[in-house]
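Form 7-S
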Amino acid sequence: MSDVPPDDTRLVQAALGGDKDAFGCLVGRYQDRVFNTLVRVLGCRDDAKDVVQDAFVQAFVKLDTFRGDAKFYTWLYRIALNLALSQRRRRRRPTESLDAAKEFAGEEPVAQQPTAAEDLIQRERATLLQQALLKLNDGHRQILVLRELESCSYETIAEILQMPVGTVRSRLFRARIQLKEQLQHLLPEEMTNDETRMTKE
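Output:
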């Protein structure tokens, strides 16, 4: 037996044939990735968890509409981001408190063991970056999260958000400018150099 896991297309086909374990494999493959994206888009872990669950339910119900002309995860991301936008419009949740943002920032991985002072600075930077992201409009925040935090290509973002690549590029440019402006308001001058690197190509 081959140890190579089945690709998404085969799993989708198996799920459509009634194999519930196949769809469970798709859930296991992408739920953490989608959740991490939605945390940054929504700014709330509880909301992100709810939307992830709804997204997979909707994906399962609509699985027969997946035509395979796009990758499964881009199709799934489109569903999840549309649900996230709908939820934000319904709730209009206020920006998270500083304590809640710090709790989110505490989930950020670090490359090496920092000193206590370095750890505090890293957490404060992550907190302020999340606050800056939440001040952007939904469209700009989505594009920045997909490009800078998820490392999606322009083409993949265009598929997920269903817009031309040129529009992705122009919106990303404007989003980076807006993020830089927000960070300059939130961060001390000596901290801005590292934090604004995502505003550059």
